[in-house]
Predict the structure.
Amino acid sequence: MKLAMIGLGKMGGNMARRLLRGGHEVVAYARSRDTVERIVAEGAIGASALREAIVALSAPRVAWVMVPAGDPTEKVVAELGGLLAQGDVVIDGGNSWFKDDVRRAAALRNKGIHYVDVGTSGGVWGLEIGYCMMIGGEKAVVDRLEPIFKTLAPPDGYLHVGPNGAGHFVKMIHNGIEYGMLQAYGEGFELLNASQFDLDFAKIAHLWNQGSVVRSWLLELAESALQKDPKLAGIKGYVEDSGEGRWTVEEAIEKSVPAPVLTLSLFARYASRQEDSFAAKVIAALRNEFGGHAVKKS
């Protein structure tokens, strides 16, 4: 198939490469001309503007958007709405909020343009291994796009999960679960690090992947990281969040679903960004006031 890939970052660029290797025609557009030229050297058709990318396609046209969620995606989808025609398809493969998908799909539907939301997981390993894709949209449209999904995903690595919004909803929950798993591994290794034993964390990570109930790809990645830096001395314990963890917690609150692990794992990320917690200062001061407990001066 022929499609436009809009956005050529860590995910979009490698997805374009995987599509090219699978025999698809890719029209590539990004704000950075150098980024476009690199993928052109690998067989893509380059475009210097969004309009140019769309003109290079044949009807019914397919534009896959891989730009940051929020305002960047909003602007690109709105511009595509003015460039595409009836029967064309916009695919948002970024990390959009599922409620935005429902709204955008309705707006494009009024113009006869189809919208498909694809929650995409795989990170920098997707080029080699393939991408896990959670797809929301009209079934007939998703079926028409199946050659693209087959190329991008590993075997059994894509699923039409429901109507518009369902794809990014499932991906949102996926990322919420990821937060909890990462926090559990982090806390476990912190306890190992605090022990009186001289432990080889990389070897322990490798051991736990040999048939234990906590084995996982994340643990394989932990082994890799710990082999490079056994005590992670070169990494600051500051953890960002992409937004999907927040949306997952908000959804749990809205639906009155108890999700304490996912919620606390999000809050732990906030705590990681505090060099000197004011809440901890208050607690230390109160302990000193009511019990005379010693405080450490800054």
Q: What stands out?
A: Strands lie at 2-6, 25-29, 45-46, 62-65, 89-92, 114-121, 132-136, 158-162.
